[in-house]
From TrEMBL:
InterPro entries: Sortase, Sortase_Class_E, Sortase_dom-sf, Sortase_E. Signal peptide: none annotated. This is Housekeeping sortase. The active site is at H117 (proton donor/acceptor), C208 (acyl-thioester intermediate).
Length: 242
């Protein structure tokens, strides 16, 4: 009776099939299961944020991983609403978009910089590549609504900023969206990639690029255009833009 011989190509085929199954399971875990876990943590962060805002002795500075503001992007639909947490460690970003701790706070002069995942773990920044010039990014704090507008993308005209803002030479090189390397910490400076003192409030969003890869970083820069005090039961009209 002849013994069957296992060919080299058969072994390679089996190995490739095994690797393919492992990659498929990993992709499922990253894009589906981590979303479930992250969504639970995000809801918990939102609940804690509401409680903190109703506390007359609210903290001036959030703890690491603690939510302190909310972000809305009307262009992504009325249901885009994420609590922003303090910190950019992996545990922090599992809860939601996280503030770079060396950057400014919302509404301050300088650069309020926030990181977020693009695939899995809630994927708050999955669609950053769809933002266009002058699209609104609204940040809600305990006491006010702050509206930022995306700076010019691909040279598109930007009539949403005041002439004074657009005339400032130190901001001429700050574009609305670009791709850079992971170690480019200059994007979170008060004026990105510059050591000139800031005179405007910026918002910077960072995420991995391309999807399912951390080889590069996608950066979105927006400039503050308005501050509105919060009025109970009212939201700013900008949230209806889409």
């Amino acid at each position: 009776m002849k013994k069957s011989r296992v060919s080299f190509s058969h072994v390679v085929g089996e190995l490739l099939l095994t690797v393919g199954v492992i990659l498929l399971l990993f992709t499922f875990y990253e894009s589906y299961w981590t979303n479930i876990e992250s969504n639970k943590l995000q809801e918990h962060a939102k609940e804690n944020l509401e409680q903190e805002w109703h506390n007359p002795r609210a903290k001036l500075h959030p703890e690491m991983g603690e939510a302190f503001a909310r972000m809305y992007i009307p262009a992504f639909g009325s249901d885009f609403n994420f609590a922003i947490v303090e910190g950019t460690d992996e545990d922090d970003l599992l809860r939601g978009p996280g503030r770079y701790v060396d950057s400014q706070m919302p509404g301050e002069i300088g650069n309020f910089a926030v990181a977020g995942h693009r695939v899995g773990k809630g994927a708050p920044f999955n669609d950053l590549d769809n933002l266009s010039t002058c699209d609104a990014i609204v940040v809600e704090t305990q006491n006010e609504w702050i509206t930022y507008r995306v700076l010019p993308v691909a040279g598109a005209p930007a009539d949403c900023f005041s002439p004074e803002q657009m005339a400032k030479p130190e901001y001429q090189s700050v574009v609305g969206r670009h791709i850079t390397v992971p170690g480019d910490v200059g994007v979170t400076k008060p004026i990105p990639e510059s050591d000139v003192p800031a005179s405007e409030g910026l918002l910077t969003l960072t995420t991995c690029h391309p999807r399912f890869s951390n080889a590069e970083r996608m950066i979105v820069h927006a400039m503050g255009v308005s501050h509105e005090p919060k009025v109970p039961g009212q939201t700013p009209p900008v949230l209806e833009e889409n």
